[in-house]
C-alpha cells in the first residue's frame, strides 16, 4: 500500500528483472523530534547515518544472480536516539518491506550445455562424448544441434542437458531430469529430441 505511518508492512515489485539495486527513501516528521534527540535509523539491524533535513536514502543491493528475488527488509526507527537507558527502553517501530523481482527469464531458461555420450562402460565411468555439429554455444541463437554416433559401438545414447540453477530440464509432459537414455534401435538411425529448460 501507499505509505501510512500506522501501516507497518509493505510490498514492492521491482519492475525491471535486470536491476541490481534499488533505493529506499524515508522522510522524518521533524515536528516530533528535537535536534538533540533524533531517532536512530537501522536497516536489517545496521545503523544508517543521515541528515535530518534531507531524505534518508538507503541503497539496497538486489539479487546478484539471474534468478528471482523475494526478500524482506526491516526498516527500524528507534525513537529517540539515546533514550534507551537501563531504566527506560527506547520506543522502536519496525517497518517490514518485502522486495520482489522477476528472474531474467531469457537467461534462466537458456541451456548451459547439451552433450551426448555413449553408455557407461563396465567400470561405470562415463562413456565417450559425441561431438555436436555445430559445437554447442549457449549464447548462440541456434536451437538445432546434430550428434552422429557410431551404431557399431552402441544403439543406446545418453543425452544430458544442463540448465541454469533456477530451471529444470523437461523432456516431455511427464519426464524431468538432466539426462535421458535414448534407445536408437528401430528408429532408422535418426531421432529428434526437444528438451527445454523450464523455470521452476
Number of strands: 15
Low-confidence stretches: none
Task: Report on the biggest sheet.
Answer: 5 strands, mixed
- Biggest sheet strand line-up: 1-7-6-3-4
Explain how this protein is built.
With 200 residues, the protein is an all-beta fold. Helix content is 2%, strand content 39%. It has one helix at residues 105-108, and strands spanning 9-14, 21-26, 40-43, 46-48, 56-61, 69-79, 91-101, 113-117, 129-130, 132-133, 146-147, 156-162, 167-170, 179-183, 196-199. The longest helix has 4 residues, at 105-108. The two termini are 29 Å apart. The model has no long low-confidence stretch (mean pLDDT 90).
Outline the secondary-structure elements.
Layout: E1 9-14, E2 21-26, E3 40-43, E4 46-48, E5 56-61, E6 69-79, E7 91-101, H1 105-108, E8 113-117, E9 129-130, E10 132-133, E11 146-147, E12 156-162, E13 167-170, E14 179-183, E15 196-199
Parallel strand pairs: 1-7
Antiparallel strand pairs: 2-5, 3-4, 3-6, 6-7, 8-9, 8-12, 10-11, 12-14, 13-15
In short:
This protein is mainly beta and 200 residues long.
Short descriptors:
5-stranded mixed beta sheet; 200 residues
